[in-house]
Amino acid sequence: ESPCLRVIYKIHKWTSSANCQVNEFSNVPTAAGTLRIEIVPRRTVTFQVSLMASKGKSKRKGSAVVPSAPTPLSLYKRGLSAVRSWTPLNSARADAEALIALASSVQMLQARMGYTLLQQQQQQPPATQSITTNTTTATAGTAVATGCVPSGQAVEIANGSSSSQQHDEHHHHHHHHLEGEERLSPFVEWSSQEPSGRAKECGNRAAGQMNGASRSGGDDTSQHDRPDPLLVVWMALEALAPGMASYSAKVRHSLDLDLEDWQDEPGFLLASCHLEIGKLLGRMFPRREVAEQRHLEAALVLFPDFVAAGLALGQALMARADHPDQLVEGEVRLKTALAAAEALTSGSGRDAAEDGLLLDANAACRGEWEAGAAARRSLAMLLCQEGRDQEAVPHLKALDFTHRLARQVLHYPLDVLLVDREDSDAPTVAAAAAAASDDDGEMETPVRATLSDARNQYPRYLRAVDDALPPSLLHLLRTALAPGARFWAEHGYGRVGYFSYMHELGSPCLSAIHQATVLVHRLIMTRYPAVTEARFAEWWAHCRRHPSGHQLHFDSDDEGVGGVRNPIVSGVVYLTGGVGGPTLVTPQLLGGPLAPHGWLVHPRENRLGMFDSTVLHGVIPGRGPSPRPGDYRITLMIAFWRDIQCRSRDDGLPGPSQPYPAPGSPAASRYSWMADLPAHPDGPDGWGTTDPRDAAPMAIDRVWERLDGVAAQPGAVPYDACFQGF
Fold first, then answer.
1. Planar angle of CA 101, 103, 104, nearest 5 degrees
2. Nearest CA among 710, 555, 715, 711 for reference residue 619
3. Which of 344, 399, 349 has its CA nearest to residue 374?
4. 3-state secondary structure of 348
5. What is the pLDDT of residues 235-250, one digit of tens each?
6. What does residue 442 show for φ and ψ, rounded to 5 degrees?
């Protein structure tokens, strides 16, 4: 509890990490608080500390114990614990608990550092209102007690209580405040009334409910008829804005960098809170982009060399990429983060004499150095996709790669039909292909030798069909799987692993997807007759922004657990077009040599791509700024199997090859998204007719190449030595 002992503890951590030991110390209670510590084998050091009153002790009043108030560090840890406990079953509750705790920690630290006053000092509520919560049962009560959360509704959200339950509980609360209870702040009591229009506007903005970000193929995908269960949380985050506006640089890398020392170094904990808030907002779907960027920027204002925050902000800007400026700023952020990480080992920081010890003696700095490697990887990917291969080479070598996905894969030729026709300066397919293959003076580009082979062989591995589904069915699927649709929210999309549904072919069509499966099966049978042997269909879906890709992989039952078992054929229905990168299909087999060539299928609305499920394939991230800012790449995947195991789950969580939630099943009581996918009463043919037309994929003469631009030699390179970048 004494300041001298805290300093001794800190010195002990440093010396232990540096393989030294504390030989002796003296704790002399002088007015100056002099502390003498002898460190061997180095030297004797004298520290000056300020004598302070003990902190954190519980007080007693009679026989009842009054719990200690939550500290910023305890709230920070509570927020991280809520993040780790998140599941789709408690999504709103866990997110609310995490954000409320982190926001409460921020506000306490803002007050401690003089950035702002606590909210309860800014408003006086009606004297008749009073709300209490028991400290042993309310998960968000202590966080609310700090004055951050601007509504009693936050307790309801965090505890998972219904409004009627909350109302009933209030009848059992006394208006005086018993020991062992925490009184919510006056600001909470006052604002339990209907939020003002200004608060709603701020909440909507913080939540990232942007009109443009909810579009998909012209449809308005936001669910405006449903109230936002986290509205109170957005209001709480908005309440932090005044303090954030006055931030200045407070933190640097040093031996003192430790969250446990927040009393002596509150700035690091404050920056870390903003980092975790920003990361959580970025994990939501759709991600709360405006608020995410605001909190990551706040972390960097406080801690300009914060590698983890610079990495997170750079990746967030690249994940949006609606405008060229975002990519430029993302690159700057990644380079700054990487430079800060390299300074931790190079001795080029502000305290060069100390830098060499940081990684050995400080765990937080070691974590920063590790974040630098992730920044380097993201930066290398950005450079490769922009065709700046020469700049990418040093970073790829530093990451121990000897080969990479070829330039014409990562810097792929654009689809001419997806370029904005109003943009006279937009590149054409020919221009993009030239940029992806011609010698630009930077890298060696050998003569293509296998392009003709790729063009001739594609029907064996890959086919594409335009106008695959009837327009009315396409519209329903696109709406039901739009970014704001409940299908994504109820599954926790983007925050859970792979999940899919399966059914037996010929069974009753319970949904529009079942009927789409019938139509897709017909189209594939005429091109790959082997699919007539299929007895089951498995389907899943994705909804991604333009720069998001999907790593190269092989389709397999249960993601390859227990051995790889492939479908016969896999199909991709592009429900939207003009956004995102192409699908890459190669002839490379599991355990076989690197593919000599491959094919790209660009996403076009109502296009169906189909391919041999035994080959390596993936989705290349969209390069450059999005041609349609705010739109999403929405796809429906259907795999056809001779046999596949149906995997029902008892825990209520999404997973691979689950049975469709039929009426009366346990899953049907947990989900409501099925209502958005009603089957046509007249069967699959009731959706109308269409005129499918075959479309040739784009052949590429190489998939892998050396870092110097020379084509990779099949069979001579281990797969793990090849950089993919996504």
1. 65
2. 555
3. 399
4. coil
5. 999 999 999 999 999 9
6. -105, -45
| Contact status, residue 286 vs residue 548, Cβ threshold 8 Å | no
CA-wise closest residue to 289 among 255, 258, 326: 326
Give every CB contact of residue 69 below 8 A, 6+ residues apart in sequence: 142, 145
Q: How confident is the model at residue 466 (pLDDT cuts 50, 70, 90)?
A: very high
State yes or no: pLDDT of 208 exceeds 50.
Answer: no
DSSP 52: -
**What whole-number percentage of the chain has pLDDT above 90?**
57
Taking only Cα atoms into account, the Rg of the chain, rounded to an integer number of angstroms, comes to 29
Question: Among 620, 479, 431, 14, which Cα is nearest to 258's?
Answer: 14
Res. 31: pLDDT tops 70 = no
Mean pLDDT confidence for 435-464: 61
Q: Give the strand pairing for 181-183 and 132-134.
A: antiparallel
| Per-residue model confidence (pLDDT) at position 360 | 74
Tell which wins on pLDDT, 482 or 255: 482
* Mean pLDDT of all residues in 463-472: 98
Q: Which helix (H) or strand (E) holds 369?
A: helix 363-385
Residue 422 token pair: 């109003």
Closest CA to 687 of 528, 552, 512: 512
Beta strands in 435-498 (DSSP E): 462-466
Could you give the 3-state DSSP secondary structure of residue 162?
Answer: coil
What is the model's pLDDT at position 45?
Answer: 52
Residues 6 or more apart whose CB falls under 8 angstroms from that of 621 comprise 381, 385, 547, 548, 549, 580, 581, 725, 726
Q: 106-110, 231-235, 516-520: which has the minimum mean pLDDT?
A: 231-235
For residues 337 and 310, the answer to whether their CB atoms sit within 8 Å is yes
Q: Given this model, what pLDDT does residue 189 score?
A: 26
User: Element (H or E) spanning 610, and its range?
Assistant: strand 607-612
CA–CA gap between residue 28 and residue 26 (Å, rounded) = 6
Count other Cβ atoms within 10 Å, centred on residue 346: 12
Beta-carbon contacts of residue 489 (< 8 Å; ≥ 6 apart) = 91, 285
**pLDDT digit string (tens) for 173-195?**
333 332 333 332 322 222 223 33
Instruction: Find out whether the peptide bond into 459 is cis, omega within 30 degrees of 0.
Output: no
pLDDT of residue 225: 56
Question: What distance in Å separates the CA atoms of residue 502 and residue 640, rounded to the nearest whole number?
Answer: 10
Query: What is the DSSP secondary structure assignment for residue 34, as one 8-state letter?
Result: E
SS3 state of residue 639? strand
Helix (H) or strand (E) holding 36: strand 34-40
- 527 closest CA partner among 586, 599, 474, 462: 462
Strand, coil or helix: what is 364? Answer: helix
Q: Give the pLDDT score at 673.
A: 97
Cβ atoms 150, 102 nearer than 8 A:
no
Q: Is the dihedral of CA 543, 564, 551, 694 positive or negative?
A: negative
What do you get for the CA distance between the two ends of the chain, in Å?
48
Number of H helices, E strands in the chain: 24, 25
Reported as a single tens digit per residue, the pLDDT across 352-396 is 445 556 777 788 988 999 999 999 999 999 999 999 999 999 999
Contact 573, 423 (CB under 8 A): no
pTM of the model: 0.77
Q: At what angle do helices 307-320 and 266-283 cross, to 10 degrees?
A: 20
pLDDT of residue 256: 83
Classify burial at 1, counting beta carbons within 10 Å of its beta carbon; exposed 0-12, middle 13-18, buried 19 or more: exposed
